[in-house]
Amino acid sequence: MTLYGGDTGKANIEAYVKPFQTSTGINVSPITDDATLSQIELMVTTKNVTVDVCGLDAVSAHIAASKGYLEEIDYSIYKKENIDGLVEICRKPFGVSGLFYSVLTFYNTEKFKAGGPQPTSWADLWDVAKFPGIRTLESGAWGTEGPWEEALLADGVAPDALYPMDVDRVFASLDKIKPHVRKWWESGSENQQMIRDQAAELGSCYDGRAQVLIDEGVPIAINRNRAKLFCDYWVIPKGSPNVQNAQKFIEFATRADRQAEFGKLVAFGPTNLEAYKMMPQEVGAKLTSYPDYMANSIPVNIEWYTQVGSDGLTNNERLMQRWNEWILR
Length: 329
Known about the structure:
alpha/beta; eight-stranded mixed sheet; 16% strand; globular
């Protein structure tokens, strides 16, 4: 099974793989790397499925499911309390989400000191007169996680009116902030290094990486107001030779006690909110899906991104094309 790389992969092994093996006697061969849609497509179409469980981003999971590349999840083996604890968007026919993360705003607390004006919203991030400073925002090169929702929110669109997305309005809003953005970051590590080096004074970031910096003593604060909420999914490629064991592993990895252990090891939010009852409050309060934060967060509408238009392109692909033209102007 593919479990992501780095600290996330290590946390998956400690919180899920090792106790699953001990509990069931089923041997697991973990691969600490990211799974991709193209890998799953190749395995399934050539009928050579060599990975039984994959952690997959939401867009890839939705597309893979639409093409028939994924097994259906057997929810009959789940206990009612675990089904009830899982956030609704995390329970799909094709997969179960094991983690939440978000993109939110940050600012340097030495630049924007306590007692003075501090940016607390996407609109503030766009307000260069009130909050002058060096900005960084996420690139739109990869589609879904681009600066789309934040551009609309900054322009006054209500959270419940974001979709279907007005793409022209997105880019009109981005036109306003473009001259003030030093770097459009393309990876969490790049963004994290910029913030650590104080090469940017305010902007957007992943919440987990920002929390690492805060714990290190880097002078930044984050604001979870209208954070963009994402979740990845555990999926089973169609034709897996070990489907039953794969189903058992995913069920195990969505239990509240296991997700609580995962949340203690790496800064991703549980998708089974009962996990928060099983971890110290000071740990839970650093995670994306902490109940107080969920109420103000905006789940990204993956179904809209994967809708196919009359031109045969998904909204995701269309945004990427538009971005590549816009960024060169």
